[in-house]
Amino acid sequence: xxxxxxxxxxxxxxxxxxxxxxxxxxxxxxxxxxxxxxxxxxxxxxxxxxxxxxxxxxxxxxxxxxxxxxxxxxxxxxxxxxxxxxxxxxxxxxxxxxxxxxxxxxxxxxxxxx
Length: 114
Ligand code: DGP
Prior knowledge:
This protein is α+β, with helices and mostly antiparallel strands. It has one domain: HIT family, subunit A, CATH 3.30.428.10. 21% of the residues lie in helices and 22% in strands. The chain contains 2 helices and 5 strands. It has a 5-stranded antiparallel β-sheet, covered by helices on one side.
């Protein structure tokens, strides 16, 4: 499996503004934020896209969302509300092929998304 910039961030090989990490996930601020809070939550395991998820990853996906919940509280956006997004492949705009959950908040969100 090819390595990505997020794999390097998860291993501490390149810097990022890390807001949370544990044995399974790492979360850091997006380089190109689309909202006052824009954090990316990634598994340390290098899964390229949602399409590559396996049944054995079920617990890991739960950990991504539990980390997002914790970070939303940490960032002070939990009560007002926030959005989580996972882009899968080109039509959805995925550009980094290491699974990541976008956590966006701090402003009103439109619907439907673009
Ligand atoms: P996506 O389009 O869903 O693949 O989102 C990739 C996001 O990753 C995009 O919002 C910009 C962000 N990004 C790309 N390269 C870097 C990087 O080197 N560091 C950080 N912190 N974010 C990055």
